[in-house]
Amino acid sequence: MGTSNKLAAGLGRFVEARPNIGKVGATITILGSLLSGATSVSFNHVAAAFTVVSANEITAVIPDGATTGEIRVIVPGGVTLLSNKVFEIVQ
Asked: Taking the model in full, what pTM does it have?
């Protein structure tokens, strides 16, 4: 039997952080689809340094001033992708 990686009907695009918790200055992985050409990554509205690794992966550094909240990734066409879970900043 094969494995299917289809999204459920009606489920919009989103990004997922791995891990979903971290300290300021740590590097995390953000997974999603169609991430090539991403122009912005932010942690609860605080801009982060990032690198597009592939169409499905970005690495980002948790920026100074980041607080617990959503991760936003802006991809070509101005589409904003939001994290599927709240990202938790720890001390």
From this structure: 0.85
CB 88 within 8 A of CB 48: no
Can you read off the two tokens belonging to residue 41? 């990554």
Task: Please give the C-alpha separations between residue 36 and each of 21, 43, 82, in angstroms, as whole numbers.
Answer: 24, 19, 16
**pLDDT tens digits for range 40-89:** 999 999 999 999 999 999 999 999 999 999 999 999 999 999 999 999 99
Q: Which domains, ranges and CATH numbers included, belong to the chain?
A: 16-89 (2.60.40.10)
Cα gap 72→29, rounded to integer Å: 13
Distance of CA 65 to the CA centre of its chain: 17
Amino acid 14: pLDDT: 84
Nearest CA-CA partner of 28 in 76, 88, 78:
88
Residue 43: which of 80, 69, 82, 13 has the closest Cα? Answer: 69
